[in-house]
Write a structure and sequence with these properties.
It is globular, with a radius of gyration of 16 Å. By secondary structure, it is an alpha+beta fold. It has two helices and eight strands; from the N terminus they run αβββαβββββ. It has one domain. Strands 1, 2, 3, 4, 5, 6, 7 and 8 form an eight-stranded antiparallel beta sheet that branches. A hairpin with a 7-residue loop joins β7 and β8.
């Protein structure tokens, strides 16, 4: 599906003569054991150098790199643009991809249970290892359920 989106973007950009910009944000939604909302906050995320390379490969290569399928959290300090892994990964979950045709926004969503002192997150394209596409850091989160929504906007 991501390949189809990138084909659409390539076709759209070539006909509109637009500059391509990529930006990201992360939304953290925490819930208590009883299901009540503990917090809902949003911040920017950092698309890593490897993430930009991955996006470029998706757009430009005939043989596509693997899809983003995982999201991870950790309890380390967030890395910079050169980061290739989380500093201290503690959990990795499947990420659900979503995109509405005709928009320039795509999302990846994952839910983590029993989160203790998480301070970093990242989207990756493999069940283990893989390319760290983007990352963000935040103050320590301990919560029964944490939903993370990573939004990437192409404009």
């Amino acid at each position: 599906m991501f390949k189809k989106i990138m084909q659409f973007i390539r076709a759209t950009l070539s006909t509109r003569n637009e500059d391509l910009k990529v930006c990201g944000k992360v939304r953290l939604i925490g819930h208590n054991k009883d299901g009540s909302l503990a917090f809902d906050r949003e911040s920017s995320n950092l698309i890593t150098n490897a993430g930009f390379d991955w996006i470029s490969d998706v757009m430009g290569l005939n043989a596509q790199p693997s899809d983003i399928i995982k999201m991870a959290i950790g309890d380390g300090a967030v890395g910079d643009a050169t980061a290739t892994t989380l500093t201290s990964e503690t959990d990795r979950q499947d990420a659900e991809y979503a995109h509405t045709p005709g928009t320039k926004v795509l999302t990846f969503t994952a839910i983590f249970s029993s989160v203790v002192a998480a301070t970093e997150y990242g989207c990756l394209n493999a069940a283990s290892g893989g390319t760290l596409v983007n990352t963000a850091g935040f103050t320590a989160i301990t919560v029964d359920s944490l939903q993370i929504v990573c939004t990437i906007t192409l404009s």
